[in-house]
Write a structure and sequence with these properties.
By secondary structure, the chain is mostly helical. Strand 2 and strand 3 form a beta hairpin. The termini are far apart.
């Protein structure tokens, strides 16, 4: 099959599959605002859909526009973020909301370059919001899309460890020329990677383009590197998360009580941090603007900001 014929087949079959099998997610519905789409893209970074859905819904009910979020206290924003992880995203989203309210008349900008200038918005998020909220034919490349491209076209089990210029060039080459089809294509390939062409257990029997997949044609070779998961147990990330859980619950905690209260809550499992790790993690939360430390008075305290 020629390259143009293959590309046309991929466009047609994957988009048709998405029409029939794509999930009905609220940020994909026509009535969803660009603000709702921006919120979803920030929340979905390194966080699965099942965890994002209830938080996203509550967030949009509470803060239906950027100005609403910008006016809230950082403490309430952090509480509402809950256990989505990487809570700095919450503060960056609030900073972006303030910029949108002040500089863009409370309307999310449609241009990818303007989106990229917002706090906490990277290249992927800017392209995704421009595409999914405003039908701009931007090249959207996330981990799922990269994996589908690697298997279908490059014949590899996994994409490179980090995005390469060659992968971006391939993504541009695969984009449909029709702007409307281009945005649908981005969403379709992303969904295929999320539901069928998964990293660990690809469901090739459910794939609409399995018979033209270069990876299958090559005998489904093993990955050219061994993926390593991100450690959690015993790490500073786990300890920071446990401290943030205490702060979300009570708003303030004595530094001397952190060890006992995290042990009581059971949020660290079998891990028992030493005093140096607790101090390091508390200092890191303060440096990131996620907590405030008050050393005045008889005992130092940590609290949520604002």
């Amino acid at each position: 099959m020629s390259a143009p014929a293959l590309t046309s087949t991929l466009h047609r079959r994957i988009s048709s599959w998405f029409d029939a099998q794509g999930r009905d997610l609220p940020w994909r519905r026509p009535e969803c605002s660009p603000w709702g789409i921006l919120v979803s893209e920030i929340m979905l970074q390194q966080t699965p859909v099942v965890r994002v859905l209830p938080v996203w819904t509550a967030w949009l009910d509470r803060w239906p526009s950027p100005r609403d979020l910008a006016a809230e206290s950082p403490a309430e924003v952090i509480r509402a973020w809950g256990r989505l992880g990487y809570p700095r995203r919450a503060l960056r989203l609030q900073a972006a909301a303030a910029e949108i309210a002040e500089a863009h008349g409370n309307e999310v900008p449609a241009d990818a370059a303007e989106l990229l200038a917002l706090p906490g918005v990277g290249t992927y998020t800017a392209a995704a919001v421009a595409c999914f909220a405003f039908d701009r034919p931007e090249v959207v490349v996330d981990t799922n899309i990269r994996r589908v491209h690697a298997r279908l076209v490059s014949g590899r089990a996994l994409p490179e460890k980090s995005l390469t210029a060659a992968e971006m060039a391939l993504a541009r080459d695969l984009m449909p020329e029709d702007p409307d089809q281009a945005c649908r294509w981005n969403a379709s390939v992303m969904e295929l990677g999320a539901l069928v062409c998964t990293a660990r257990s690809p469901q090739c029997g459910q794939c609409p383009v399995a018979e033209v997949c270069a990876w299958r044609a090559a005998g489904m070779p093993a990955p050219h590197y061994t993926p390593t998961g991100q450690a959690w147990a015993g790490t500073d990330r786990q300890v920071r998360g446990a401290i943030m859980a205490l702060l979300r619950e009570s708003g303030r905690v004595l530094v001397a009580d952190i060890a006992a209260r995290t042990a009581e809550a059971g949020t660290l499992g079998a891990h028992t941090p030493d005093a140096a790790q607790f101090e390091r993690c508390a200092a890191g939360l303060v440096a990131d603007g996620l907590a405030c430390r008050d050393d005045e008075g008889p005992e130092p305290r940590l609290s949520l900001p604002g």
